[in-house]
TrEMBL record:
Keywords: Monooxygenase, Oxidoreductase. The keyword Transferase does not apply. It comes from Actinacidiphila oryziradicis. GO terms for molecular function: monooxygenase activity; oxidoreductase activity, acting on paired donors, with incorporation or reduction of molecular oxygen. GO terms for cellular component: cytosol. This is LLM class flavin-dependent oxidoreductase. PANTHER family: BLR5498 PROTEIN (PTHR30137:SF8), LUCIFERASE-LIKE MONOOXYGENASE (PTHR30137). Coiled coil: none annotated. The keyword Oxidoreductase applies. Residues 29-314 form the Luciferase-like domain.
């Protein structure tokens, strides 16, 4: 049974789901599909995730030609109308360049449409293309996130809100509607490597999502420990720790690498040039495919073993596979979803002893 305050299954059970950035897929001839067709395919993928028995399906906000998912909540509402069990949320919502009131209202509306299955993962925005679009200065990056998270925390109480800050208009005892089904929308904060972000998450009593895209997953174990210590210090109840990491499942290890790694490598190389970090090599990426690395790629058995190790290393109870990359085929993604739900998830639950 799902805990309505956290969106996590009760009793410490493992929750397994999928995250996507809505990357544009290619047709059978290798040509990019339209944004419209990519989004329609994404709805089908969310419906399949529900049928395959997965716990979560989340869409990350982006505003680019290759990732045109600027209104994730609209797509999630379409998925909600055709599903009945799976929880639906963002991965992540860039709260810094959005209005917290509108974010709350949109996901409270999604909660109503889905019968209480909505959740939110908030993030500062490692991809910052939304800032100039909505007129925000990157020099205000930290202040925008801190203030807007603080307002969102107030909104989650679903009581009249009094709040003031520098980044938006003040609220003076105003009530914000609609209210959610359970009285509070489960909220997580995505953290990519900052102890300060971990402590902030604990201070607000949100759940922690560790976003791992490369390197060894075990290096995030201190963040999981810090989070639980900080929750105790702030007098907050225990909250779950989740892991978001890239991956792909196919019939064999070789097929999974062949389908996923070239697309992932091309994307990472492009991003590294934009952001100025070291360009990865094929050798370094293959190390991440191996034991202890961040890429969960392979056959169902291989991926299940690696997810189990990741969850144990990080003392986490939720794993979201970030699937799909620009240029992959919709068919490969659908097979990945089917295998992840029907093969990987049962194996992980068995290995974890839940």
């Amino acid at each position: 049974m799902t805990n309505p305050s956290t969106g996590q299954t009760d009793g410490g059970d493992i929750a397994l789901g999928l995250d996507t950035f809505g990357d544009v897929t290619n047709d059978a001839e290798g040509k990019p599909l339209s944004h419209g067709q990519t989004i329609r395919h994404l709805v089908e993928e969310g419906v399949l995730a529900d049928r395959a028995g997965l716990d979560h399906f989340a869409i990350g906000e982006h505003h680019t030609d290759s990732m045109p998912l600027s209104a994730a909540d609209v797509v999630l509402a379409a998925i909600a109308s055709r599903t009945s069990h799976i929880r639906l949320g963002s991965a992540v919502t860039v709260i810094s360049s959005d209005d917290p009131v509108r974010v709350f209202q949109r996901y409270a509306t999604l909660d109503a449409v889905s019968g209480g299955r909505a959740e939110v993962i908030l993030g500062r925005g490692s991809s910052t293309e939304s800032f100039p679009i909505f007129g925000y200065d990157l020099s205000d990056y930290e202040e925008l996130f801190e203030e807007k998270v603080s307002l969102f925390a107030e909104l989650l109480q679903e009581k009249p809100v009094t709040w003031s800050g520098n980044t938006r208009a003040s609220l003076d005892g105003l009530s914000i509607y609609p209210h959610s089904e359970s009285g509070s929308i489960p909220t997580w904060i995505g953290v990519g490597g900052s102890p300060q972000s971990v402590i902030r998450t604990a201070r607000y009593g949100f759940s922690l999502m560790l976003a791992i895209i490369g390197g060894e997953t075990a290096r995030f174990a201190p963040f999981s420990q810090l989070f639980q210590q900080a929750l105790e210090k702030f007098g907050q109840p225990r909250r779950p720790v989740g892991v978001h990491a890239p991956g792909h499942v196919a019939a064999t290890d070789e097929q999974a690498v062949e389908e996923f790694l070239p697309a992932f490598e091309a994307t990472i190389r492009s991003v590294s040039k934009q952001r100025g970090f070291r360009t990865p090599t094929r050798e370094s990426l293959m190390r991440d495919v191996g034991p202890g690395g961040a890429l969960h790629i392979g056959s169902p058995e291989t991926v299940a073993r690696k997810i189990t190790a990741t969850l144990k290393d990080l003392n986490a109870t939720r794993f979201d596979l970030k699937y799909g990359m620009n240029g992959m085929s919709h068919g490969a993604l659908m097979t990945n979803i089917e295998l992840f739900g029907t093969k990987v998830a049962p194996l992980v639950r068995e290995m974890m002893g839940s």
